[in-house]
């Protein structure tokens, strides 16, 4: 199971097997408790009127785990989701969705820190590539690099606009030796829809226009 499926939906796959904990006058789970589902999932934490509400830990049968805040059975507030592939997300949740500020660590060690919306990178954020040490800092739209951004390498950086995960249009390379090269990127047709955690594909052509010294 991924975190795109709520625990409430997952509960329907198996009835409650056992529960130990507090209840209210109506007999509903209320307060602290531990529930074991027939599916093999386990939740331990706070309840309110029969629903997960407050701090809690949910262990999934597939070894996923969520530790954090709940509201009315939904991940809501601050929490960490650990995935079976070794990746994890730590940050803000809104109604079971990654939303707000958070840090995602991918299986290959890459990290993204920034804004999220509807489970996707959206807004301002920084993506760090472990293999090369490069970084992208800038805008994201629906999980992709879009609009203004900066791609930073060890001894130079590129600053300009991005589209579909690649630089696009006018921009400039700024080199540590004290000069900058202005030019334009033209995109080459290439499908990058499946890009999740990898260096941007070579799908653009750079045409230099001029070289200038960096203004003091």
TrEMBL record:
Keyword list, A-Z? Repeat
- An example of a Pfam family matching this protein is MORN
Q: Which Gene3D superfamilies match?
A: Histone H3 K4-specific methyltransferase SET7/9 N-terminal domain (2.20.110.10)
Query: Which biological process terms from the Gene Ontology are attached to this UniProt entry?
Result: axoneme assembly; spermatid development
Iron keyword on record: no
UniProt-annotated stretches for the region Disordered: 1-35
What SMART domains is this protein classified in?
Answer: MORN
Query: What's the domain of life for this entry?
Result: Eukaryota
Q: Where is the composition biased (Basic and acidic residues)?
A: 7-31
Q: According to its record, what are the GO cellular component terms? A: motile cilium; nucleus
Q: Does the keyword Repeat apply?
A: yes
Name-wise, this protein is: Radial spoke head component 1
Instruction: Specify the species.
Output: Tetraodon nigroviridis
């Amino acid at each position: 199971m991924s975190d795109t499926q709520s625990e409430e939906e997952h509960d329907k796959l198996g009835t409650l097997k056992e529960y130990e904990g507090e209840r209210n006058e109506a007999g509903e789970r209320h307060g602290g408790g531990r529930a074991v589902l027939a599916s093999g999932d386990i939740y331990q934490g706070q309840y309110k009127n029969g629903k997960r509400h407050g701090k809690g830990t949910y262990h999934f049968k597939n070894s996923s785990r969520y530790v954090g805040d709940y509201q009315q059975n939904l991940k809501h507030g601050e929490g960490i989701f650990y995935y079976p592939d070794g990746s994890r997300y730590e940050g803000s949740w809104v109604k079971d969705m990654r939303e707000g500020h958070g840090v995602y660590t991918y299986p290959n060690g890459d990290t993204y820190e920034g804004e999220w919306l509807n489970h996707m990178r959206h807004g301002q954020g920084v993506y760090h590539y472990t293999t090369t040490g490069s970084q992208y800092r800038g805008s994201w739209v629906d999980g992709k690099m879009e609009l203004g951004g900066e791609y930073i390498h060890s001894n130079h950086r590129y600053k300009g606009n991005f589209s579909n995960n690649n630089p696009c249009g006018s921009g400039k390379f700024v080199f540590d030796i004290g000069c900058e090269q202005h030019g334009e990127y033209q995109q080459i047709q290439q499908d990058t829809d499946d890009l999740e955690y990898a260096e941007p594909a070579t799908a653009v052509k750079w045409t230099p226009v001029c070289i200038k010294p960096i203004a003091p």
